[in-house]
Design brief:
Number of strands: 2
Number of helices: 4
Structural class: mainly alpha
Strand content: 5-15%
Largest sheet: 2 strands, parallel
Distance between the termini: 22 Å
Order of helices and strands: HEHEHH
Length: about 110
């Protein structure tokens, strides 16, 4: 992840990521000046409101009351990484880390 973000950054690409350990941290460490980090619970981004707005009828993610106060904003920051801080600047591409190196959703 560090190598990928470093190469993208050197090529002039902006980098959006989360603020978690692991893949997010590795991705951040290789990114340059065009880095945007989205943290769960960042009140300026209202990630809880975003999450609840994306899943209002709970058809996708059920039982809000059973989710922790930390888990809900995690789901709210994810779309920001994909669509930008105002949800109007879609990313040109996405890089996903998977434990097993999955390259297709069927596997």
């Amino acid at each position: 992840m560090c190598k990928i973000s470093s190469k993208l950054s050197k090529a002039g690409w902006g980098i959006r990521t989360g603020n978690a350990r692991g893949a997010d941290a590795a991705f951040r460490s290789g990114a340059g000046e065009k880095l945007q980090v989205f943290s769960p619970g960042d009140e300026t981004l209202e990630t809880t409101a975003i999450a609840k707005g994306l899943y209002p009828n709970q058809a996708i993610w059920s039982k809000w009351e059973a989710k922790s106060a930390y888990a809900i904003p995690l789901h709210g920051r994810n779309p920001l990484q994909v669509f930008g801080p105002n949800m109007n600047e879609p990313s040109a591409g996405l890089i996903c880390w998977t434990k097993d190196g999955c390259t297709h959703h069927n596997t």
